[in-house]
Every structure is written in C-alpha cells, then in structure tokens.
Amino acid sequence: MLLLHLCDVKKELKDNLIDISLNKKISERHTFVSNEVSKRAHHGKGHLNSEKNYLNNVPIAIKRAKDFSCTEEELISNIGTNIGVLITRLNMFQPLSMNPDIIMVL
Predict the structure, then answer these.
(1) Measured between alpha carbons, how far is 100 from 38 in angstroms, rounded to an integer?
(2) Looking only at Cα atoms, what is the longest distance across the chain?
(3) 87 CB contacts (<8 Å, ≥6 apart)?
(4) pLDDT tens-place string over residues 28-61
(5) Is 23:13 a contact under the CB 8 Å cutoff?
(6) Which of 18, 27, 54, 96 is deepest in the core (most CB within 10 A)?
(7) What are the backbone angles phi and psi of residue 80, rounded to the nearest 5°?
(8) Do 49 and 36 form a contact (C-beta atoms < 8 A)?
C-alpha cells in the first residue's frame, strides 16, 4: 500500500479505515486511496517520483504495515499488505558480491 510510505495510516486516517477498505471511486481520476496518495505525494498517477516519495521510505512503510494484515488469509477480508514480508525475506538473500559477473548463492 503506497499510502504507508507517505503517512501513518493507523493514526492519520483512523476514521477512514472503512473508506480505505472499500476504496470506492470518488472522482473521474481517483479512488479514495489514490486520492490520499496524490494529496500527500503531490502527484498524479503518471508522475510518481518513486525515489523521493517511495524508495526512501520503504523501511518505515514496512514498519507501518505491521499494524495491518499481512498474511494471505487476512488480506482477503482486511486492509493491509504483504509486500513488507516479501522485501524482508528478499533482504535475507543478498548476494555476497556486488559484481554482476560474480553472483554467489548460498
């Protein structure tokens, strides 16, 4: 959920958790969540500025995601994300060498 990179959803949007879950279209351009992302990141869907708005905030987004559902079973009927679990697992498999010609897998 990109919104976790931009704000503490549990605190800042605590009164809108049902709106996030339903994520209804609220305008011709936006659903509820995409509108919140756009307001906070000051961009439209086509201009993400990924490094500034998202990549630098991955660690905090992973931490914030722990306040929500993160298992496949829970995600069926609850808001949340399991991307943080995936990223954490991938970080356990970093190559020993940064040389692209010498990638060692343990």
Answers:
(1) 36
(2) 51
(3) 58, 62
(4) 999 999 999 999 988 766 666 777 778 889 999 9
(5) no
(6) 54
(7) 155, -165
(8) no
Neighbouring residues of 62: CB distance < 8 A, sequence distance ≥ 6? 84, 87, 88
Distances in Å between the Cα of 25 and the Cα atoms of 3, 10, 28 are 16, 21, 7
Q: Say how far apart CA 18 and CA 60 lie, in whole Å.
A: 23
Whether this prediction's pTM lies above 0.85 is answered by no
Q: CA 61 → CA 97, 98, 100, distances in Å?
A: 27, 26, 29
CB atoms within 10 A of CB 70: 18
The domain ranges of the chain are: 3-91
- Residue-wise pLDDT for 57-80, tens only, equals 999 999 999 999 999 999 999 999
